[in-house]
TrEMBL record:
Domain of life: Bacteria
GO cellular component: cytosol
InterPro entries, per the entry: AIG2-like_dom, GGACT, GGCT-like, GGCT-like_sf
Residue span, Gamma-glutamylcyclotransferase AIG2-like domain: 6-113
Name by which UniProt lists this protein: Gamma-glutamylcyclotransferase family protein
Family label: Belongs to the gamma-glutamylcyclotransferase family.
Single annotated GO MF: transferase activity
Transferase is among the record's keywords: yes
PANTHER family recorded: GAMMA-GLUTAMYLAMINECYCLOTRANSFERASE (PTHR12510:SF4), TROPONIN C-AKIN-1 PROTEIN (PTHR12510)
Pfam family, one: GGACT
Active site, per annotation: E79 (proton acceptor)
Source organism of the structure: Ectothiorhodospira magna
SUPFAM superfamilies: Gamma-glutamyl cyclotransferase-like (SSF110857)
Length: 129
C-alpha cells in the first residue's frame, strides 16, 4: 500500500511561498520530521533534494497527510512530477515513530548542484526566487 504522507523540505513548508499549494491540496500537518537516511539538500535560489542516499544530512522538514487524488495532482503539478522532480517513498521519523512518505527529488541535477554544500534544513532565512 502506498503512503498518503508527503515529506516536504522546502517552499511547501509552513511560512514559505508555496505553502498555499499544500493548503490547496488539503494537506494535514502531521509534525516536524527528519529523514531516516541522509540526503544532500542543496540551495541554489530554491531548495533541491538530491537522490543520493548516504550523502549529506538527515534532512529536517515537515510531514503532511494528503488524502485524495486531487491533492496529489496539485503537488505533482507544482513539482513538475515526473519530469522535473520525481516522487518516491522514503522513511522519515516524527516524534520517534518511523513512517513511510513520498518525497520529491530533483530528477536530473547537474554537476554544479552536486558540488554545492549540503544543508540540514531549509529555513526562512535562506533567500529563494
Amino acid at each position: 500500500m502506498k503512503p498518503d504522507l508527503v515529506f516536504v523540505y522546502g517552499t511547501l513548508k509552513r511560512g514559505h511561498g508555496n505553502h498555499r499549494v499544500m493548503q490547496r491540496a488539503a494537506g494535514e500537518f502531521i509534525g516536524e520530521a527528519i529523514t531516516v537516511e541522509r540526503f544532500p539538500l542543496v540551495v541554489d535560489g530554491l531548495p533541491y533534494l538530491l537522490d543520493s542516499s548516504g550523502e549529506g544530512h538527515h534532512v529536517i522538514g515537515e510531514l503532511y497527510r494528503v488524502s485524495d487524488d486531487a491533492g496529489w495532482s496539485y503537488l505533482d503539478r507544482l513539482e513538475g512530477h515526473p519530469t522535473f522532480y520525481r516522487r518516491r517513498v522514503i522513511s522519515c521519523e516524527v516524534d520517534g515513530v518511523v513512517m513511510d512518505a513520498w518525497v520529491y527529488f530533483l530528477q536530473a541535477p547537474d554537476r554544479r548542484l552536486r558540488e554545492l554544500e549540503a544543508v540540514r534544513e531549509y529555513t526562512d532565512r535562506m533567500v529563494y526566487a
